[in-house]
Structure formats: C-alpha cells, structure tokens
C-alpha cells in the first residue's frame, strides 16, 4: 500500500473537494522551469545533507536507490493554478535520510543541480511528509520533471518540490530560495492560497 499525503482525501470523495481554492484539474503534467533542464548522469549524481554544525551526510545514486523505498500516491498543486490528482511515485522518505542527522535546525534550504533553491521548515520534510523521488507512474523520473531525482512535498505548492535535487542545508535561520526572493510566498500552502508574498 502506498503512503498518502496529508492533503489526500480519498477516491470516494468528489474531485472538487480535493482541489484547493483557485485551482483547476488537469490530466496532463505541465512542465514549468526557471531555466534550462539539467542533465545529470546517475554515476555523477549525489545527494547531501549539511547540518548547521558542519556535519555532512552523502549518498551516491546507488546508495540512495538501495535504501528502503515508498510509493506515495499524492495530489499535486502548482502555484500557476493547475492540480493533478492521484500521482504515483517511488522514492526514499526524508525520515530515512535524516535518521543519522544530528541537528536542532528548524529551517532547510534545498539546493538543486542548475542552481535552483527553495526553503522549507524542517518539520515539513519529516513525519512522512516528504520524499526524494526517482520514479513517476512506474517509470524513471524524466529530466523534464526533475529526474533523476526531485524532492516531493505534496502538501505545499509544487515549486517547493524542487526538481533535480542535490542537497539540503540545515539552517538556524530561514533563508529564502529562488522564487521566495522573487516575491512568492515563503511557505506556499495551497489550501490557504499562499501564492505570493502577503497572501
């Protein structure tokens, strides 16, 4: 059985009940990116977690994909107002990756191949809320959708689910990422329509 996101309401409910305010349903998977699509061979890919005390944990592609995986089925909500329901993924829970991290940090800055960054509270990465995913609908994750691996945080707008993820830096103080410094909301809860600063 797959893991279900906090915002998932079940198939028996009306689809309209699963759409946050201002969203419309799409059946395709639009591709939106801030720049060119990085192409990262898996033999050169790595993922790191850097704690605020200087500790670094590092995984190669082989090490990441050898970890216990989960298959979450979640709804996605983009800040550009589309939502896609019942998307299926495979990846590693951040709970697994954080098992050996010693940190009191409350903030995280996600770093990606290609230079993209986004910020999140650490609590939004743990307790079954986030994954590093490498398969979508049973296939390897395509580069256009963030492959070889992306962050998946389905309870927030999709820009927080950073494509081409390469690391997480834990911080004592919040540090806005790419879209947050450009005027997007610092948190991005779709159910509260937190699209832009001040929402």
Automatic annotation (TrEMBL):
InterPro entries: OxRdtase_Mopterin-bd_dom, OxRdtase_Mopterin-bd_sf
Protein name, per record: Sulfite oxidase-like oxidoreductase
Recorded superkingdom: Bacteria
Renumbered residue ranges of the record's region Disordered: 1-22
Domain Oxidoreductase molybdopterin-binding residue range list: 35-179
SUPFAM superfamilies, A to Z: Oxidoreductase molybdopterin-binding domain
Pfam families in alphabetical order: Oxidored_molyb
